[in-house]
Amino acid sequence: MKITRVTVTPIAFKDAPLLNASGIHEPYALRSIIEVETDNGHFGLGESYGDAAALAVLDKVKTQLIGLDPFNLNRLRAIVKSTVAGMAPAGNSGAELAPGSHASKAVSNAYSAFEVALLDAQARYLNVPLVDLLGGAVRTEIPFSAYLFFKYAEHIDSPYEPDSWGEALSEEQIVAQARRMIDENGFKSIKLKAGALDPEHEVACIKALKKAFPDAPLRIDPNGNWSLETAVRMAELLGDDLQYYEDPTPGLEGMAELHRRTGLPLATNMVVTDFDEFRRSVAQNSVQIVLADHHYWGGLRDTQMLALMCDTFGLGVSMHSNSHLGISLMAMSHVAAAVPNLSYACDTHYPWQEADEEVIKGGKLSIRNGCVGITRAPGLGVELDRDQLAKLHDLYLSCGIRSRDDVRQMRKYKPDWKTVKPRF
Ligand code: GKR
Ligand code: MG
């Protein structure tokens, strides 16, 4: 089997005005949709970052894949490495929470984008679900958690009709957001994105969630925006309300000290983002749970390797997410299905995406009882809706955004907004 055609289509879709440590989401999120076709009529799909820096690498790699056997993933990695080595490194400005633009992740991001599509093509050729190529499913229902955000009712300058979620700044509004997300998807665990408002208020929202959903495991994620002292103070207020404390304070050293001082289980997608940081984290016991993300951890197989390392060193594993569509959701679900030690419900932004902005046939995938189901359909089990792909590509062309920048967006609301880490 040989690859005959590779297409990378940048797309944009509406993103809600969600608040985070950097600032606020822009009105559109960017992604890339990867398609690989083979000489024997098979195809494979992938979804990855859509920032300019990520697209530049994908575009340079794609032409070199013509003629490659989709089973030759080692050759894919070599092509990606040599391509990135020959390119000027991209800057990171404004992209702190958007790993798609981090220069240091260029190889793992691009390798992952194509690896998923090649694995999908392999699996379709073999007529098996992709998870079978990862050793088979240890579970077919993949648990995800409700991912709550503080948010404004609508974007500045009203680029389109406000979303249906409304404002969420108060305790009552956050509880209402959780209730809707749970009613619609059956989530059993709840994560609150924090680091955006006053820390005492964010903790009060966790308390309100605890009261409203006493049985749901809770997490709070300030994205490293709390100083060590603030994180210790909030830990005292939180007591044993949390399942885990996600990236409260910056740096491997800060997290290690926080764990020494509080004993709380700490999770991260910020201080352990590659195997070198993993080694340094283990050496000083910085975190107890690693949130994997195949998009920047170098694909589905390296994510399994990460999970194995977590098992070896006695760490928990869960999964991180950025704004994404269904191809990514299925890739996340297939790898999660093949990780025996997945110890927590995974994150997903998927419920935030609009129903009419999915690129796969049949529209948005269902999350039932908080889970995404893996079937015996070949590959990732999804197909492209070409009209939708064209529609979202047109949106990419017209939206004017080329790289995610939540800081720049927040300056439209607060002109003197700066990147301060930690802010509280
Ligand atoms: O989308 O605002 C966001 C999140 O803050 C995202 O950028 C984070 O990377 O979801 C992520 C997280 O868990 O830290
Ligand atoms: Mg996080």
TrEMBL record:
It is an enzyme of class 4 (lyase). Residues 171-265 form the Mandelate racemase/muconate lactonizing enzyme C-terminal domain. Its cofactor is Mg(2+). The keyword Magnesium applies. Keywords: Lyase, Magnesium, Metal-binding. Its EC number is 4.2.1.40. The keyword Metal-binding applies. InterPro entries: DgoD-like (IPR034593), Enolase-like_C_sf (IPR036849), Enolase-like_N (IPR029017), Enolase_C-like (IPR029065), GlucD-like (IPR034598), Mandelate_racemase_C (IPR013342), Mandelate_racemase_N_dom (IPR013341). Signal peptide: none annotated. Pathway: Carbohydrate acid metabolism; D-glucarate degradation; 2,5-dioxopentanoate from D-glucarate: step 1/2. It catalyses: D-glucarate = 5-dehydro-4-deoxy-D-glucarate + H2O. SUPFAM superfamilies: Enolase C-terminal domain-like, Enolase N-terminal domain-like. It comes from the Bacteria. Belongs to the mandelate racemase/muconate lactonizing enzyme family. GlucD subfamily. This is glucarate dehydratase. It comes from Herbaspirillum hiltneri N3. The lineage of its organism: Bacteria, Pseudomonadati, Pseudomonadota, Betaproteobacteria, Burkholderiales.
